[in-house]
């Protein structure tokens, strides 16, 4: 079991912060690199597409445009069983034709908390009116919370509301 995911890899002072094998599978996230800090890439992800262009046997390093600050990648995540269940139950994606887009967003706490109403499988079902989440517009109903402060979000949090400031990894359909 697995699923297709899209995410951004940022270039830091010493590169992307990933070590890949000859098949472009991520072997390791370097502890102080941007990929580790962002928490979107995972060991065993097999990178297949960079900025919309299939690698088709090319090495990842050869596909990266010099000097570019970030790259949009599509990867096969073979160990994504929990995320796959979450995706199928909420977004219906995770296929090669419709990969999930993973994105790191920061939500600020306001007087009413974060202002996110969370349903089953950690899907955002609503935004509290006039909350910071509604005002900032970085997350919207239908998004799925996959991690909070770098830790995987529980899959079933029916009826809960997130109230603390957090860095959230959200999943949505690629390009939405």
From TrEMBL:
It comes from Prymnesium parvum (Toxic golden alga). This is PDZ domain-containing protein. Residues 104-176 form the PDZ domain. InterPro entries: PDZ, PDZ_sf. Residues 156-176 are annotated as: Disordered. Residues 161-170 have a biased composition (Basic and acidic residues). Transmembrane segments: none annotated. Signal peptide: none annotated.
């Amino acid at each position: 079991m697995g699923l297709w995911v899209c995410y951004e890899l940022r270039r830091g002072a010493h590169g992307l912060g990933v070590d890949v094998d000859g098949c472009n599978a991520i072997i390791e996230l370097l502890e102080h690199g941007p990929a580790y800090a962002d928490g979107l890439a995972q060991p065993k992800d097999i990178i297949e597409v960079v900025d919309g262009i299939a690698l088709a046997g090319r090495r990842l390093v050869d596909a990266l445009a010099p000097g570019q600050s970030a790259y949009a990648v599509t990867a096969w995540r073979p160990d994504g069983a929990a995320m796959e269940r979450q995706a199928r139950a909420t977004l219906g994606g995770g296929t090669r034709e419709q990969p999930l887009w993973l994105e790191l967003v920061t939500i600020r706490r306001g007087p009413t908390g974060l202002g996110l109403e969370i349903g089953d499988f950690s899907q955002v079902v609503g935004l509290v009116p006039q909350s910071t989440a509604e005002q900032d517009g970085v997350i919207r109903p239908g998004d799925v919370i996959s991690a909070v402060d770098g830790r995987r979000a529980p899959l079933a949090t029916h009826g809960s509301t997130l109230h603390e400031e957090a860095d959230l990894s959200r999943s949505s359909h690629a390009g939405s």
